[in-house]
């Protein structure tokens, strides 16, 4: 038995994986896996350049997903001010569509990243995100808020989100979890800062002085500032591998049972994930919580 095992191993045949021909076929140049499995020896797994990419990713999530996590701030604000003549469910379409754009756009932005790298997503997404916020600052009608915040700004935020997230894995191996953790912290940090500072301090103090418009513009300028750093640091370590746009590339992975079950699980979990983010402030106020304290609920939820 021992001799037989030794012969199999010395011949290059792994009893767990099969023949060397089969193993080589899995990672052949023509296999799709070769496009996503990096040369492990070339991954820096640290260093100034790699960690600067992490910092850029942190800035990206600060301006993208952290902003979307704060949708409850707008639900509360619009119900009591700009859109007070509309029902809560009608106003919720603004925040819910804004959130859904982050996910509905994933296949398209993922394909753009694969073909062209992060640069087009970063530059185009920054322009759309900042423009959307600027236009929201000028909005007066419901459709204007919807187009500016739920479509233009949301698509821009989604573009930069996928650009900043996708590059991290190519720079790290052993420290990959730490790198992604640092990047993800940008979303919670921004939301904590936004909910506490923006809502309870900035909005409270700036609205009477400069109005809603300039309050939104200040947010846009802050995001533009941090995204300039992201543009200079978020770089792909590997070259893009352009491929033609084929519809089957989007639905073919769903033929794998495990992938399909994972997708369905995520699909149903997101049905209820953002409901607390959207209504937690209003629910706290309805239950009698002090309005100033209620404004901190999103920050506490994200910090937890």
Task: Quote the beta fraction.
Answer: under 5%
Termini distance? 54 Å
- Mean of the pLDDT scores? 77
Low-confidence stretches: 1-37, 190-200
Query: In DSSP terms, counting alpha (H) and pi (I) runs of 4 or more, how many helices?
Result: 16
What is the global morphology?
Answer: globular
| Sheet of most strands | none
Describe the model.
Helix content is 74%, strand content 0%. It contains 16 helices and no strands. The model is unreliable at 1-37 and 190-200 (pLDDT under 50).
Strands, helices and their partners?
Blueprint: H1 2-10, H2 20-26, H3 33-36, H4 48-63, H5 65-68, H6 71-80, H7 88-104, H8 106-116, H9 119-138, H10 142-166, H11 176-233, H12 248-251, H13 257-273, H14 275-286, H15 291-294, H16 297-303
Helix pairs in contact: 4-10, 4-11, 6-7, 6-14, 7-10, 8-10, 9-10, 9-11, 11-16
């Amino acid at each position: 038995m021992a001799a037989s095992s030794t012969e199999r191993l010395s011949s290059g045949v792994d009893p767990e994986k099969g023949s060397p021909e089969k193993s080589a076929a899995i990672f052949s140049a023509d296999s799709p896996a070769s496009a996503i499995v990096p040369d492990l020896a070339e991954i820096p797994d640290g260093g100034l350049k790699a960690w600067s990419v992490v910092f850029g990713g942190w800035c990206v999530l600060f301006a993208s997903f952290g902003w979307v996590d704060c949708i409850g701030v707008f639900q509360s604000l619009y119900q009591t001010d700009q859109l007070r003549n509309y029902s809560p469910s009608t106003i919720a379409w603004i925040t819910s569509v804004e959130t859904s754009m982050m996910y509905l756009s994933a296949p398209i932005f993922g394909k753009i990243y694969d073909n062209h790298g992060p640069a087009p997503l970063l530059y185009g997404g920054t322009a759309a995100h900042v423009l959307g916020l600027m236009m929201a600052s000028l909005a007066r009608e419901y459709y204007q808020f919807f187009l500016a915040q739920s479509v233009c700004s949301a698509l821009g935020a989604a573009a930069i989100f996928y650009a900043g997230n996708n590059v991290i894995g190519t720079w790290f191996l052993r420290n990959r979890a730490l790198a992604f953790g640092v990047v993800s912290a940008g979303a919670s940090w921004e939301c904590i800062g936004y909910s506490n500072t923006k809502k309870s301090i900035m909005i409270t103090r700036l609205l009477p002085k400069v109005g809603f418009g300039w309050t939104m513009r200040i947010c846009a300028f802050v995001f533009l500032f941090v995204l300039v750093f992201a543009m200079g640091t978020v770089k792909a370590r590997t070259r893009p591998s352009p491929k033609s746009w084929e519809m089957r590339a989007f639905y073919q992975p769903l033929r794998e049972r495990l992938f399909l079950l994972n997708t369905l699980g995520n699909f149903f979990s997101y049905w209820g994930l953002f409901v607390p983010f959207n209504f937690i402030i209003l629910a706290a106020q309805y239950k009698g919580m002090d309005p100033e304290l209620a404004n901190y609920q999103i920050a506490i939820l994200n910090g937890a």
